[in-house]
Specification:
Elements lengths: L2 H15 L4 H15 L16 H5 L3 E4 L8 E5 L1 H12 L4 E5 L4 E3 L3 E4 L6 E5 L2 E3 L14 E6 L2 E6 L3 E3 L3 H5 L15 E6 L2 E6 L2 E3 L6 E4 L2 E6 L2 E3 L10 E4 L2 E11 L5 E3 L3 E11 L5 E6 L5 E15 L3 E8 L3 E17 L1 E9 L14 E14 L3 E6 L6 E13 L5 E5 L1 E10 L23 H4 L4
Parallel strand pairs: 1-3, 2-4, 3-6, 4-7, 5-8, 6-9, 7-10, 8-11, 9-12, 10-13, 11-14, 12-15, 13-16, 14-17, 15-18, 16-18, 17-19, 18-20, 19-21, 20-22, 21-23, 22-24, 23-25, 24-26, 25-27, 26-28, 27-29, 28-30
The structure holds 2-acetamido-2-deoxy-beta-D-glucopyranose (NAG) (4 copies).
One 2-acetamido-2-deoxy-beta-D-glucopyranose binds next to strand 24.
């Protein structure tokens, strides 16, 4: 909690908007909520040391995939063995599905569906590997390889690896070769329609497309997960969150060819802590509003991150023609190294072979805090707020920003963006327009309690 900051911003808002403005009140409400979105930290997380099965097992029932005929030789097809093992663990209380260390288990696309008996643990210590030939992929599973759904209270953990063998999929992407058709590829690991899920320590790599998708779920905790794919592998988002609430990502190291984290429609209360990102396209909210869709994303906090050599840093991207809103986002304590667009809000996002027409409708972006963001930028425009003429971005709050370019000057670009700067802001962001032109800028030292006393909030 950083109450002092809250109060400082409150003071400034009052200076800018006047005491009684409903708007200031709404802003403060949201900012207050944002501040209370602090992480309940899990202290036993260690990237490389997972609590051993034996010490945790107690009276658990161990179900080894090898006892259902799985062979970890990298070539035998283990799909049926895994599905049979799943049937057993899912229907046995307090059971542990074990993928033993050392083996490489080839598994085709499969759905592992709940509901299951309580206290299920999936212990992945070996490697699960996908068949690498897109032409032989079962079209029934065109968007997911390992799909877990309808689970309640399941722990996934281990030192194992989920490997999508994605290289042929990448080569077949229209992003790699324009003569290829643009079609989706499977995500490696999906948690869908589930709740109270914990994932600890697993590595997910070389996915066909997105690595780890959290969809239609709530209360999902992800600790110490690593995601790895080449920086030029197309659309290989690290962790993608859609229509999910109460999600925590902590101590994750992600390097891929697309967003390290992407958060899209229907997601709220998303907290990220200590995220390492690079290579990749940064930490993104969006894209949102494609094909005139409505999208809502609220309450997203990133606290402590290190981004290295990514194309974007902290990004919100929306398509023209969408509707809905992004409200209440805080990015703080982020260090960047050689990031191309460190801070970017882009309401003209267009990831399409044809140009996108401007439209009057847009996803409304408001109440976005960037606090204590420093490091180096590769482009001159260290901060970019490109917002819609008809739906301007509002209440962008910058506080203590220091972005430098190794060999040159930096600047902030604004179009139709309104906000406020607080503390040191480099490059300066004077182009963020206040809605009320008659504001009196207060001195930007620590606020006194006076600012609060005189309010009627
Ligand atoms: C957006 O998310 C909401 C809430 O989960 C859902 O009802 C809606 O169908 C989603 N819209 C799209 C276009 O996916
Ligand atoms: C600013 O962020 C950095 C991480 O990038 C952190 O080490 C530092 O403590 C933060 N400063 C403050 C005043 O919170
Ligand atoms: C859309 O609007 C923006 C901002 O006014 C402008 O810079 C851009 O050129 C327009 N794009 C198109 C395709 O008209
Ligand atoms: C966008 O949201 C802000 C804050 O809720 C609101 O004041 C503004 O009117 C909205 N803009 C549009 C075009 O709806």
């Amino acid at each position: 909690m950083d109450k002092l900051f809250m109060l400082s911003v409150l003071g400034l808002f009052i200076a800018v908007y006047g005491v009684a403005g409903n708007m200031a009140y709404d802003n403060m409400g949201m900012l207050g909520e944002l501040e209370s979105l602090d992480m309940e930290e899990e202290n036993d997380v260690d990237l490389f040391e997972i609590p051993s099965l034996t010490s945790e097992r107690g009276n658990k029932v161990l179900v080894n995939v090898e006892s259902f005929g799985a062979v970890g030789d990298g070539v035998s097809d283990n799909t049926q063995a895994f599905l049979k093992a799943w049937e057993t663990v899912c229907s046995t209380p307090k059971s542990v599905l074990l993928v033993p260390p050392g083996g490489r288990y080839l598994v085709n696309a499969a759905r592992f569906e709940g509901p299951c008996q309580s206290n299920l643990v999936i212990q992945i210590d070996g490697t699960l590997v996908a068949p690498d030939e897109p032409k032989q992929w079962d079209p029934k599973f065109s968007r997911a390889w390992l799909d877990f759904s309808k689970l309640n209270g399941v722990l996934f953990q281990g030192n194992g690896v989920i490997d999508g063998s994605g290289s042929k999929w990448w080569a077949a992407s229209c992003k790699k070769d324009k003569s290829n058709p643009c079609k989706g590829a499977p995500s490696a690991f999906t948690i869908d329609s589930s709740q109270a899920i914990k994932i600890k320590g697993i590595t997910i790599q070389n996915s066909q497309q997105m690595h780890f998708v959290i969809s239609r779920s709530h209360s999902v905790r992800v600790y110490g997960v690593q995601v790895t794919a080449p920086g030029d592998s197309p659309n290989t988002d690290g962790i993608h969150i859609t229509q999910s609430t109460d999600v925590i990502l902590q101590d994750c190291k992600i390097g891929t060819g697309d967003d390290c984290v992407s958060i899209v429609n229907g997601s709220s209360n998303i907290k990220m802590k200590r995220i390492f990102c690079g290579p990749g396209h940064g930490i993104s909210i969006g894209s949102l509003g494609k094909d005139n869709s409505k999208a809502v994303v609220t309450s997203v906090v990133l606290d402590t991150a290190y981004l290295r050599e990514t194309t974007n840093g902290l990004r919100i991207k929306t398509w023209q023609g969408g509707s809905g809103y992004v409200r209440g986002v805080r990015f703080q304590d982020v260090k960047m190294e050689d990031v191309s667009n460190p801070i970017i809000i882009d309401q003209f996002y267009c990831d399409s072979p044809t140009t996108c027409q401007n439209q009057t409708s847009a996803v409304n972006i408001t109440q976005v805090v960037f606090r204590n963001i420093s490091g180096t930028t590769k482009s001159e425009k260290a901060m970019k707020f490109a917002c819609s003429d008809t739906v301007p971005c509002s209440n962008i709050i910058l506080s203590n920003i220091n972005l430098e370019k190794k060999d040159g000057t930096v600047e902030t670009y604004c179009h139709s963006a309104q906000g406020i700067g607080y503390g040191t802001i480099h490059p300066s962001a004077d182009c963020l327009k206040f809605q009320d032109k008659d504001y009196i800028l207060m001195d930007q030292t620590e606020p006194t309690s006076q600012h609060i006393v005189h309010t009627e909030l």
